[in-house]
Amino acid sequence: MTGRILVLDDDPLLALDVGTTLEEGGFGLFGLCHSVREAEAMLADDTPDAAVLDVNLGRGETSLPVAQRLRELGVPFVLLSGYEPSAFPPELQSAQRMAKPFRPQELLRTVGEMLG
Asked: Which three-class secondary structure string do you get for 72-93?
């Protein structure tokens, strides 16, 4: 498999777990980031092939601005969340979601499907 994947999660251990799962599944990492600010800085320089985004980043921050930017760029993403779609802005209610904690094989299958 190929593809450089952006991982956004406020918990460094969970971000590393997602990143390790992706790498072991044959994907490349675009980068691991822990805040909207870090993700936006990465996106200013280059574009990933896909992304895995934790929705709740703590301290009242969510990854929804990053999800909206990825959608503008045409980059597929999956939201890791326990939230219902109705909690998201209308343009993201139909976004692909996975429950946390994620199952490694489900994550790999989902990312593989996003990349076609």
From this structure: HHCCCEEEECCCCHHHCCHHHC
Alpha carbon distance 44, 113 (integer Å): 26
pLDDT in tens, 23-47: 999 999 999 999 999 999 999 999 9
H or E element that contains 44: helix 36-45
- Answering whether pTM is above 0.70, one says yes
Under 8 Å CB-to-CB from 83, ≥6 apart: which residues?
55, 56
List of residues 6+ apart from 28 with CB closer than 8 A = 2, 3, 4, 5
Both structure tokens of 5: 């994947």
The residue to which tokens 């993201």 are assigned: 92
CA atoms within 13 A on the CB side of 24: 9
For the ranges 27-31, 82-86, 92-96, the lowest mean pLDDT is seen at 82-86
